[in-house]
Amino acid sequence: MGVANEVVSFNHVGKTYTGGTVALSDFHLSVKEGEFLSFLGPSGCGKSTALRMVAGLGEATDGDVSVFNKKPKEMIQQTNDIAFVFQDANLLPWRNVLDNVLLPLELRGGNKKESKQTALRVLEMVGLKDHLKSYPRQLSGGMKMRVSIARALAAKPRMLLMDEPFGALDEITRQTLQMELLDIWQQENMTVLFVTHNVYEAVFLSSRIAVMSARPGRLSSLIDIDLPYPRELSVRTNPTFTEYVDLASDHLETSSDRKEIG
Amino acid sequence: MESPSLQVSKQNVVSKVKKPKERKIWMTFKNVYLGPIVAFIIFIALWQAIPVLLGLKHYILPKPTDVVEATIKDWDLLWPAVQITVIESVTGFLVSAVVGIFISILLASSKILERSIYPYAIILQTIPVVAVAPIVVIWFGAGFNAIVVISFLIGFFPIISNTLMGLNSVDKNMDELFTLYNASKWQRMWKLRIPAALPFIMAGLKISCTLSIVGAIVGEYVAGIGGGKGGLGYAITVAAIQVKTPYLFACGIAAAILGISFYLLVSLFSHLMLRSWHESAMKVEK
User: Fold this and answer.
1) Do A55 and B278 lie within an 8 Å CB cutoff?
2) Can you give the pTM of this predicted structure?
3) Do A107 and B187 touch (CB under 8 A)?
4) Quick one: B95 and B29 in the same domain?
5) In angstroms, what separates the C-alpha of A107 from chain B's closest C-alpha?
């Protein structure tokens, strides 16, 4: 438990918007290298707000966030270490699949030939090598999300931030992508921070879950998921899996009860 | 006695054998083109009949045949006039497109510039160009230059307002994506804002291309010169003084055809630019 491998630290972070809405209050959490950590909570619990702060999109009004011992904004400006996957795939509609994946490399100004090789590698990883010339509007929701993940991986990040990436997908596509994401996470030795409101998704993917409660958004509990990786879909029928789901649901409920009473 | 029923069954067979492709073409023709064609024929027929029935003189309301006759007779006057108007309006349009887009990008690249200048761009847009045309003539002298400037002025503002709107309509998430990759201001401009603005720019170009013809014709009213250098607007003023009504109609129709062709041309260009990705172009593709 050395501090050396701490990659993100939320230090009593608070966020109050100018209208007076408190999005996040006294949020304290330390993320270790190589973790798959999910922020699980109802809407309005500030989970996205917390994730966005790690990427330097939005600043804390109280406390501070540090990423790899630096300020998030500095990290974004100086390194490729942080990649962000948005809820909708957020692809540029005028670029085809390959060019969308090349975008981060273009913006960072890399060698063109190497960039293309990298792009092809990550596209192969997400199984889209045969759709290089397709435009986003020709792709299904799942394929768009794959391109989006490939784009995030292109710049070889050390940390992947995902804001409800599978929220808009159908269940079957979601399960496939969850499996693929776990594979990629293990292959690339990344830290993944994953925002979701889906308990099953959180338990299936994560090595640790941060359960959050709403209004004001704060951390309600941390749950370690001691299920071995690689996880197959059959894990879902495992009694331990069910116990974790019950536990996480309990924590979610108690935190929302508290909200209603308060 | 049985021949009629036999005939009927034969017809049925024939219509069934008819190739489905031919039938499809006929169906689209019937559904899409037949109506307008019939309406057009009825319109021309009425136009031909009414002056005869009411006994109107050809200088009040010429018949279509009079217009055709005038077109053929004065073709040597009409055709050069059309060519001159084409050159004037295309020049005016191209200048307004280039200058309009360039200035928009410049304005959009600096919040201060945009905030200080954009309100005036809107106010200027509401000034009727006809009202300032004489000033343009004083500055540039009668003839080609003044006409192009008037055509430019009329086509310029739709492009500016559309382009600026487009450049500022970038999706928030995409903007954040560029922030995450530490994109420079100009990277953001070239790789995000301009492509995102393209549908808006194209809409602006479509508006301004027809306006540029209006501008050229209005320009010729006030700044047109004769001696074989006059365009449609000049030809119209001359024909109006001489009460050559059929020829006036010919000029008007020529201007309309010009406007439609120009619009179709710019629409085609827009379609080619956007077809791979934009929804407005997708529908045409289907």
Assistant:
1) no
2) 0.83
3) yes
4) no
5) 6
